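User: Before I run my own analysis I want an independent prediction to cross-check against. Here's the chain; please return only the structure tokens and, at the end, one sentence I can use as a sanity check.
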Amino acid sequence: MQLKDILSDDMKVLVSGSLNVEVLGISYDSRTVQNGYAFFALPGHNTDGGKYINEAIKKGASVLVSHSKVETCQIPLIIAEDIFRFMSIFSAKFYNYPDRELNIIGVTGTNGKTTVTYMIDSIFSHAGIDCGVMGTINYRYKDKVIEAPNTTPQAPDIYRIMREMLNAGVKHIVMEVSSHALSLGRVYGIDFDIAVFTNLSQDHLDFHKTMDSYFEAKSALFRSLGTGTKKNIKFAIINIDDKYGKKLADIGLSAEKKFYSMSDKIEADFKAQNIDISSSGSKFDLLYAGKTAKINIKHFGLHNVYNALAALAATICSGIEFHKVIEGLNNSRQVPGRLERVDTGHLGFEVLVDYAHTEDALKNVLQAVKKIKHKRIITVFGCGGDRDRTKRPLMGKVAVEMSDFVFVTSDNPRTEDPSLIVLDIESGIKRVYRTNYKVVVEREEAIKEAVMMADKGDIVLLAGKGHETYQIIGLDKIHFSDIETAVKYIALKNQKENISNEPEQEEFSF
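Assistant: Structure tokens:
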């Protein structure tokens, strides 16, 4: 496709150089540039794409897109004031608007996005419908799985993957939409059909600064409904029990609003009643449009009842038959790294791994864990570096108040000193005068101590990293898995217990 065929008069950019050049691909990383690619020199937190312009040109870039002037440029130059939004518009045109041919469900909120997308995927699959998924764990469709560097990828990746999905015969996509993606224009212009709001609690204030700003970022997904070219009915699915859900419900939208709730005092389209939470899962009665259905899912905890309601609403609004939605949800599988059990053999205690990395998520998970019969809850958690510092003391307070013992450790410290991150966490613990904790900065050592401390009837919760198989220390990404580490020390404990239980050999003299 030639550059002149991509650009249009309504794209507010400055262009210098020939428009009669071929564009064969799009890249925002100089390492992936190939001959004929348009290279977007994006501004960044740690570095600036402007530093890699010469490298991109040497690799064969045919077009350069920048957010500021470039002194000398040997190829056509486009200057875009909002380069991220322009990259989305450019990508949409280059990949010939795949979003216009797809049914796209966007799921946003602080917690629950991944679980909701897995449940939606399960429901579509049970109904015999292929569904593509883009989210925190991976991007996948049919038998193809793509590693996920971000919850919501950059616009060129979104449009490329959507086009691949469409070419493979996939007509439905569910996508986790992060507040960063909304603020930075990664999903700008995508014609969503359904938007789901799970909840909003404190997170990412290092980026958004205030909760109001954080909410405005999330609400942008819902404001975008109906602004595209598709003329079908749009749906905004909202957790009306959440205070920010109520705020979202009051906004005028070009979409039909559907509310979900588990409160008897609130009117909602989808309601959960007679809720029964146990260690084996969650049961409840679904009330919808005069119908009642028994829901029995493997996911335990009240937060997963909300996630189930969101998935039910999204798939029913997508046109899937009611009975197939119920069957698909009841058969949905456990999500990797979300209260995932680690086999402890005959040791008699539980080890659970969860992604909870906000105060609200940690509280929800600990509330769910308390529903399991136990002697003690031993929690291991830390907080990520170069991220919202204000949530650290809040998480520390929740952990010690809702656990019998806590190991405060490292998460992904990034460029921060892990010991200083721990001090932020400890400030919240000290405010409630708790001493039921120990600081063990090395995460592997903390997990080891927790496993070795556990006795029969205890529950060990490893929180914060969930499905992740890495730690980010400095600028390096090193292999690390909570699950693998737990398995290692469970095996060691089993070995020690087996040795100690061996009968002593009698000595005989001849």
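Sanity check: The two ends are 93 Å apart (CA to CA).
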